[in-house]
Amino acid sequence: MKKLLFILFIFLWGGVNHFTSASESAEFRVHIRNNLYAQEVEITLSRVSLCWDYNHQISNSFLGDTKYTEYNDRLGWDFYNAAQPYDDDLALARYKCSSKIDGLSFDYFYIDYRTSDLPGSYSAAADIDVYFNTANGNFYWNEALTISVGSSYTIWGLNASIDYTTTGLEPYTPDSFDLTSSNNHPYLTWSHSSEEDYWTNYAIYRSVVSGDNPPGNFSKIETVSKYTTSYTDNDFVTGSPNTAYYKIVAVNGTAESDFTATKSIGVAAYKTGNEQTQHTYELHQNYPNPFNPSTNINYTIAKNDFVSIKVFNMLGEEVADLVSSIQTAGSYTIRFDAGNLPAGVYLYKINTSNFTNAKKLLLIK
């Protein structure tokens, strides 16, 4: 009797197999089980994040695909292959895997491929096999372990041969770049609105010409941290008869974004070799305050120095590390996003070799 029940279970789980050859070598495979009544099974992989291609460049493609079957079948999605750029379904992005049976929605889960370790370390060992039971609409690992609805997985978490690293993924271009005059110096501001993006720094480029001539060759004049969204160019005072042109890129390791639009402003002269712009150490009150969920913190350092700015709760526990780098003398603005913190009073503190100060900020929700 036990033997008969075991044979019946195997039949109900496996049913009649109808595997398509196109899915044999696919990197992401869904095995359909228990489709005993020729129901239409629809499995969709849909992109739900920003995306990077085989060369780690930003891409608007690779949206995923939907596949159908009325059999106990194997459905496959291929990873990006430079040799076959028109037949790919997946790239470096986060995808939602969802299911329907005869048009009715059932389980879904997420899988994340956003690591610059791909595709270099991709091999057959990185292939993912998932099972879908038509009898109950559930996804499984290894035909046994249920995948919880709405759960999230990563390719590096599922396969130890793949590392999680985002250095080298092309960052998005900074937003809202503007150029004005502040304290008689060119003052640059920008933002970075995409929270899913990966970037480590910003690089500022400048070209100075006589009169109102078009820009010549640009030179990189400064690299600032990812938390910095403003820069004062103390090499020039604003005025005439020269023109200074500026543009900015976001940097992520060895990768750079496209340049922002070029902005220009009239400047009077170079700062001479023995002239020094005088700065003082200052930490300004954040604005806005109270805030929800983000606020700006302005500060000035008097000389090239190592700067640390951290945020603490009222128990003295560190909740954010905003700046931890060597910076040149000048004024800076950083944005503090407290979207993942509870409402309350927090303390932000600056430390340099010659200056320490702290101020309170109020997060409301």
Q: Which shape, going by the Cα principal axes?
A: elongated
Helix content: under 10%
Give me the strand/helix succession. HEEEEEEEEEEHEEEEEEEEEEEEEEE
* Biggest pleated sheet: 5 strands, mixed
Strand content: over 45%
Structural class: mainly beta
The spatial strand order of the largest sheet comes to 4-1-7-8-9
Strand elements, count: 25
Rg (C-alpha, Å):
28 Å
Average pLDDT reading = 84
Unreliable runs: 1-22
- Per DSSP, the total helix count is 2
Question: What's the quick description here?
Answer:
With 365 residues, this protein is mainly beta. It has helices spanning 2-14, 155-158; strands at 28-33, 41-47, 64-69, 74-77, 94-101, 104-112, 128-133, 138-141, 145-147, 152-154, 175-182, 185-191, 201-210, 219-225, 230-232, 236-252, 255-256, 263-270, 282-283, 294-301, 305-313, 318-327, 330-337, 344-351, 356-363. 5% of the residues lie in helices and 47% in strands.
